[in-house]
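Still learning folds. Look over my entry:

…
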Amino acid sequence: MIYPSCRGIRLRFFLLSVGFFLVSSCHAPPPAPVDQRPPPPSQKINFHVVSSDETLFAIAWRYEKDLEKLARANGLSPPYTIYRGQRLTLDTNRLPPIVRAAPPVKKQPKKATVSASAEKKGSPSPVKVTKPAPKLPESLPSVWRWQWPTQGRVIRYFNSTELFKGVDIESHSGQAVVAAAPGVVVYSGSGLRGYGELIIVKHSEEFLSAYAHSRQIFVKEGQMVKGGEKIAEVGGDPANSKRLYFEIRQKGKPVNPLNFLPRK
C-alpha cells in the first residue's frame, strides 16, 4: 500500500479550503452600502419676524438672547417698541458701537402754521404696534438673595442640552408661587409656546427668572415685586398641574437654578 506524503495531504487540504471559500463567497449577499455623506448641518435662525402682541423681552427669552444686546443689534432703545411684521436680526455678536448723543441746543420755538389742505387731509393712519415693553424702574434692588419659588422637591434637574433648561419642582394644584428675588415683572402671559401661563421677572441687568405653567397669575407687566411675594398659583394644564417649572437666566443664557437657590 502506498501512503500519500505529508506534503500531498497539506496541498489537498489547502485546495479544498480555497474551493469551499470560493463557493461560499458566491452565495453570500453583498455588503450593505454605507452612506458616507455627512449629516445635514443644524439650521441656524438669524432673523425673527414680529407678530402681534410680541415684546422684545419675549423674543429675547425665546432665542436665549441678552435683551440689551438684542436691542442694540436692532437699533432699539427703551421702551423697545416693535411693530408687527418687523424683521429683527438675532445676531448679537457684531454690535454697532454705542454713540453718545450730544447735549441738545436750545432753540427758539417757531410758530407752526398748518395749511387748509393739510387740515382736510388729516393725519395718516397709525401703523399696528405690538404690545409695548413694560416701563422699567430707574433702579432695581442691588442686594438680594435667592429663595425657592415654591415648596417641594426637584423632580427634574437642569440639563443644558434640553429644550427647556430649568427645573421642575413637585407641588400641588393651587400651591403658592412666589418671586425668587425682588424685581420687576417684564412678561406675563401665554404667548411663548411650551410654557403655558408664564411670568418673567427681571432682578437686575444680569438676572431674570421664569415661572411656568401657572393656574392663576396675580401680577402684571411693569409691576414691582418683593422677594417671597405671591405672584401665581401652581396648576396649569392637566399635564403640568402638580409641578412648577422654574428657570434662571444670566445675561440671557439659562443657568442651573440649584447653583443659586439655598440648599434644602
